[in-house]
Every structure is written in structure tokens, then in C-alpha cells.
Amino acid sequence: MAHTIMPALPLELWGCITSYLSNSDIKNLRLTCVQFKNASILRIDRVFLSANPLNVKVFRCIAGHKKFRHSITEIIWRRAWPGAPRIQRIYRGK
Q1: Where would I find the beta strands (DSSP E) of the chain?
Q2: Separation of CA 7 from chain center
Q3: What range(s) does the F-box domain occupy (predicted)?
Q4: In angstroms, rounded to a whole number, what is the distance separating the alpha carbons of residues 61 and 17?
């Protein structure tokens, strides 16, 4: 397997560079090598939540994360029972 040598740039500069990329481009960049994965941070601004225990666990992990919890601007609650409205916004920040 080929090893990639990433230019030795400060993480702040990598943050500036990746700020111009879409979320899907950042995801693809993170898959290319470990250095890019460590240098680029995912932007998560919306969280979908339901009564599913796995969704609640993921939500709690995001809420406890030192960077991700500050970037959430919208929480969308999805009811899991028939006849209920499909999606309801329960939080909209910024």
C-alpha cells in the first residue's frame, strides 16, 4: 500500500482549506489516508432523532463531543409510530 506524505501544515490551515469543501467531499478526503482523516473534521449541523435506542445513543455521543455539540443547529424528531407526522423540528438554532 502506498503511503501519502501530507504537507506539514498546521491543523488550523487544513481547517481553512476544508471549509471550502462540501460535506461529501470532506468525507471522501477523509477516506484517502489517515493524515487527511485526522486533519479534517466533519461538519455536522443537523441530527435526526427518534425513540430508537441506537439513535438516542448516537445523539448522546454527539452531545458529549467537545466539537460536534457546538455545531448542531437543528434537531429533527422522527416519530416511529404509524399515523404520526413523519418529521417534526424540535430545535432550530442560529
Answers
A1: 46-49, 74-77, 88-92
A2: 25
A3: 8-39
A4: 27
Q: CA–CA separation, 14 vs 83, rounded Å?
A: 47
Q: Which long-range contacts (CB under 8 A, 24 or more apart) does 75-84 make?
A: 75/46, 75/47, 75/49, 76/46, 76/47, 76/48, 76/49, 77/49, 77/50, 78/48, 78/49, 78/50, 79/50, 79/51, 80/50, 80/51, 80/52
Return phi, psi of residue 40, to 5°: -115, 140
Report, as an integer, the average pLDDT of 60-71: 87
What cell does 79 get?
416519530
Apex 15 CA angle, 39 and 13, nearest 5: 95
Q: Each residue of 36-47: pLDDT tens digit?
A: 888 877 788 888
pTM of the model: 0.53
